[in-house]
Design goal:
The protein contains four helices and no strands. The chain is mainly α and about 100 residues long. It has a single domain, classed as Apc36109-like domain (Endonuclease III, domain 1), CATH 1.10.340.20.
């Protein structure tokens, strides 16, 4: 991100990055360290949704749309909802 974030938001940004990498991983590359930045282009949008207080369903819909429209694969709505719930939980834990 270009702007400097407050410490709690930076922690949230990094936590969401880790969730997208470890848990979302729609193309199955999280076992390849050289691909660690694969999902970082999607991170600012998902982070913004979390900071704005969007619910898990809204974030999940965005994750599904990203997989289907940007990546070009079929998406598991259930998996995306599980990931979105983790994002909302970590947002509530870190930022409130």
């Amino acid at each position: 991100m270009g702007e400097k974030l407050p410490p709690a938001e930076l922690d949230l940004y990094n936590a969401i990055d880790e969730i997208l990498w470890r848990d979302w991983d729609p193309i199955g590359v999280n076992d390849m360290p050289e691909a660690r930045d694969e999902y970082q282009s999607y991170l600012p949008h998902i982070f913004r949704l979390a900071v704005e207080g969007k619910d898990a369903e809204h974030i999940s819909s965005s994750l599904v749309a990203t997989i289907e429209e940007s990546i070009g694969l079929g998406a598991s709505r259930e998996h995306c909802l599980m990931v979105a719930r983790k994002i909302v939980d970590v947002k509530n834990d870190i930022v409130g």
